[in-house]
Write a structure and sequence with these properties.
By secondary structure, this protein is α/β, with parallel strands linked by helices. Helix content is 20%, strand content 26%. A hairpin with a 2-residue loop joins strand 1 and strand 2.
């Protein structure tokens, strides 16, 4: 096991779920209840020193009991290592703790995850839509059960349903 994963597992044995290492990328999955404590640890521990948040994202696994995966990718500028911390949440309880108190840069990224997937973040300072209109009520566009053409109002766009407006197959010439 990777030394960073061992360190996190020894500190949070009850919250540690699994570790995956592939081509130098380290991904550690933790229980939702341990997420904030693990992130605080990797942020503040001098040996880990993950002082930069790279990205916050989410994955939709519609056939799984814990449908959504929330992924925090962090980096240590001084130690030059990258860690992905993941957790899973069920559809009926899409809620995780915000990491904005640890990394201010998580603010807009968590808002994007909320806006596109519907995952809420406890203690977020300004959890509101960031990409979609405030009055958008048709769901969450990056969920796998969201229709490709959208819901309802896009059916009134005649050009979407008119085959003569289709660009057709790519010829590969040009």
């Amino acid at each position: 096991m990777h030394p960073i994963a061992e360190k996190i597992q020894s500190r949070f044995p009850e919250g540690f779920v699994e570790v995956n290492e592939w081509r130098g990328d380290l991904a550690i999955t933790v229980k939702r209840e341990a997420l904030h404590d693990v992130c605080s640890y990797i942020r503040k521990d001098p040996d880990l020193d993950c002082d930069y948040i790279v990205h916050v994202s989410s994955v939709d696994w519609p056939d799984d009991e814990e449908r959504f995966e929330v992924v925090y990718e962090v980096y240590s500028i001084r130690k030059r290592h990258r860690i992905r911390i993941k957790t899973r949440v069920p559809e009926h309880d899409c809620l995780v703790d915000s990491m904005t108190d640890l990394w201010m840069g998580a603010d807009f990224m968590e808002r994007e995850v909320f806006d596109m997937m519907g995952i809420r973040f406890n203690h977020h300072p300004d959890l509101r839509r960031i990409l979609m209109p405030d009055d958008y009520t048709e769901g969450y566009p990056l969920r796998k059960d969201f229709p490709v053409q959208g819901k309802g109002w896009r059916d009134t766009f005649d050009f979407l349903n008119d085959p003569s407006q289709s660009p057709g197959p790519l010829s590969g010439k040009g």
